[in-house]
Amino acid sequence: MRKPIKLGLGAVLALTIGAGSAMAENIKIAFIDPLSGPFASTGSNGLKQYQFAADELVNKKGGVLDGQMFEIVPFDNKVSPKESLIQLQVAIDQGIRYVVQGNSSGVAHALTEAIEKHNKRNPDDRVLYLNYAAVDPALTNDDCTFWHFRFDANADIKMDALTDVIKETPEIKKVYIIGQDYSFGKAVAAAAVRMLAEKRPDIEIVGNELHPIGKVKDFTPYARKIVSSGADAVITGNWGSDMLNLGKSVVENGFTGPIYTYYAAGSGITAAFGESGKGVIRLISQGQINPPESDAAAAYIEAFEAKYPDGNIDQPRITNAIGMLAEAIKEAGSATDVVSVAKALEGMEYDDLFSGKVYMRPQDHQLIQDMFIGAHTDEGVTFDYDNSGYGIVVEHKVEMAGMDSPTTCKMKRP
């Protein structure tokens, strides 16, 4: 008969430590976006959506590979390209191989350039960048890189869908274009001018101007120019506080026509517009919230709102970034071999919770997906934003927008 073996405290600790070291390490994802300053609400709500998506789509299902869980690690970049590069280096020093960012194409350009240089110099420590909201077309055209994947539609794809709607709205004869003075704002303006000329050459552009990003406190002078121009519609790519302050000022100064926007929902914007935005604010976006795409989408939103009562699913494409990354890691069989993960992402088809099939175009790493144009309203709202009773209800749908759109990307692959 074998005698029971008694272990001393040191042996027990050694076994415990050994078992812990065998546990799968988390796959850390650096979230580099504004968590302070004028755009903090946008970044903070995005962070909540990433944390929730990681838990719901990956961690609650047992993680990936040998049980590795997704961990979202926040870094505050204050919407500064310089600060973003500092935070990127901190993340890399912590061994993080995946970066997500979305707010400001200026930041996105800085990150793509820095990551490209880092990956060339450090082939054993490469980093992959998942862009969920920075939509300057150049990022998937002349400035494309193998290490960058965009999960939002670029500014040209969105403008193509918006101008299709304007084309079919004969009462619009004069348009005012206004945006933030950086790469994205300039891209929106250029696309609007070009596409309106192609589709509705009779439309007169009565204003086309840029303003400093995040620095204008009073938009009254801009609003008065818009109203006095006789514009029937406004087009703006503004986001965050710049979107809210511009829109409120334009409405308060008597403008009643449609304001076509890229980012006029959630993060406090919907509640602030309230009744004043009804019949005025229009939004182009990925993902259908009202009505929900499916029962599964509705359940996901309900669960998110239960966990984050002050949050909004206003960037549903975040579920694609997390879900597709998880699938790519599974296909690659490794979370550290980012080259294999990137190759798995290329050409991937994925079932989007909020709009159906999506497709990562391999030639430029631009996600192709349905686009929705909706109106700010309190009628027919299943899920509101900001606990306001108001939401965005879909009026138009463009299937697989941009599927055949051209690209000048000449990607260099490792």
CATH class of the largest domain: Alpha Beta
Distance between the termini: 62 Å
CATH topology of the largest domain, which one? Rossmann fold
CATH architecture classification of the largest domain: 3-Layer(aba) Sandwich
| Extended strand count | 14
Structural class: alpha/beta
> Could you estimate the helical fraction of the residues in percent?
25-40%
User: CATH superfamily membership of the largest domain, which one?
Assistant: Response regulator
Q: Number of helical segments? A: 12
Compute the number of structural domains.
Answer: 2
Could you explain the architecture of this structure?
This protein is an alpha/beta fold. The protein has 2 domains: 27-153 and 296-369, Rossmann fold, CATH 3.40.50.2300; 156-286 and 371-401, 3-Layer(aba) Sandwich (Rossmann fold), CATH 3.40.50. The chain has helices spanning 9-22, 40-57, 81-93, 105-121, 155-167, 183-199, 220-228, 240-252, 269-273, 295-307, 317-332, 338-345, and strands at residues 27-33, 70-76, 98-101, 128-131, 148-150, 174-180, 204-211, 233-236, 259-261, 281-285, 349-352, 356-361, 366-377, 391-401. Strands 6, 7, 8, 9, 10, 11, 12, 13 and 14 form a 9-stranded mixed sheet that branches. It has a 5-stranded parallel sheet with strand order 2-1-3-4-5, sandwiched between helices. Helix 2 packs across helix 11 (317-332) and helix 5 runs parallel beside helix 6 (183-199). The model is unreliable at 1-22 (pLDDT under 50). This is Branched-chain amino acid ABC transporter substrate-binding protein.
